[in-house]
Each structure stands twice: as C-alpha cells, then as structure tokens.
Amino acid sequence: MIVKDSGLPHEKPHTGLHDAILVFVQDVGTHIVKTQWGDKAQRKIVFCWEIDELLKEGEYAGKPFLLSKRYTFTLFEKGSLSKDLESWFSKKISDETRKTGFDLETLIGRKSTLNLIESEDGKYINIGAVLPAGKDNTMVPVCRDVPKWIDKLRQNSLEMSKQQSFENGEPLPSDDFGTAPDDSKLPF
User: Fold this and answer.
1) Which of 37, 53, 134, 146 is exposed most, by the fewest CB atoms within 10 A?
2) Residue 174 lies in a domain
3) How confident is the model at residue 22 (pLDDT cuts 50, 70, 90)?
C-alpha cells in the first residue's frame, strides 16, 4: 500500500479583498450534517468563484484560484445563502422571492468581491463575505471542468446512495437521520 502526496496545490491565495466571478453553481444532493440539535439531512449546493489571483504551481499554474462555499439549499432568511446573496446585491430578498423561488444558475458569470480569511488553524483560506463587485472588476471566467471533489460529494449524497442500493437490488438504507427534505416545501 503506497501513499503519496495528493498533487493538489498547497499554495493559498492572499487574505483580504479579491475581485471574483462566479463560475459554477452545483447541486450536490442531500447530506447528513451534524448540528447542535443532532444529525440532520440537508440538501446542499456549492458556489465556485474564480478570483483575481493566479496559481503559481501545479497543472493549473497561470489560472485563477478557484474558491468555493457550500450552502444549504434554502432561502431561509437566517441561512448563509440568504445572507451572502443580500450582501452581494446590497438588498434584502423579498418575501415574494422567498416564496416563488430564484434561479441560482442566473448568477453564473456575475462578478463580486470576496473577502478571504484564514481558518483558525491556518491551513485554509475561506470566503468570509461575498460583496458587490468593484467598478474596476474586469474578470472573465477561465474555462475549466467542474472539480472532481464536487462529483465525489454528489456521489456521497443520500440520493445517490439510495439509487445505487436500488439498482443493486439492496434494501434501501433506513432513515435513521430523518428523511430528505420535502421539495414541495422548499421556498424555490
């Protein structure tokens, strides 16, 4: 059994404000999330932005850093997605939009400013805030494939787990953690 470096870039972008452009919005399915109230099944999405700083190492050297943030698939007013969208567009999401829904894919290609912060342990750079784009943001997306880790995340969703069990003739997994959210009750 041979173990070696994963080959992923170890470099990190600088903290602080960066021009950015949203390049992907991916539905990665329902996952079990540990909360202070116990384990919950939550549908998740991933937003990926390219920023104005370029990688210096690896197969993507010379291309922009790609940063991501995971959200629960809801426009609940206290949720991270709502807060980031309101910060990004400098306005509140209307009650009507919360009820009728909003097509997140319409955001692909939109510019923003990201405030990047270092994790407490110093290992990662995280998106601290999504802010309106600066007037001098001239970013255009660089074409690249959806990262493999997003496909792996999708493969580990409850939906894929149940589908694979069904296709293999196995009994469906029990819903020890509750059932997947009822899509008819989602705000969009």
Assistant:
1) 37
2) no
3) very high
Percent composition of the chain: helix, strand, coil (DSSP 3-state, to 5): 20, 30, 45
Q: Which amino acid is at 28?
A: V
Does any domain span residue 27?
yes
Radius of gyration (Cα) for the chain, nearest Å? 18
On whether the CB atoms of residues 32 and 41 are closer than 8 A, the answer is: yes
Q: What is the pLDDT of residue 32?
A: 87
Specify if 71 maps to a domain.
yes
What is the domain range of residue 41? 21-110
pLDDT 10s digits, 101-118? 989 999 999 999 999 999
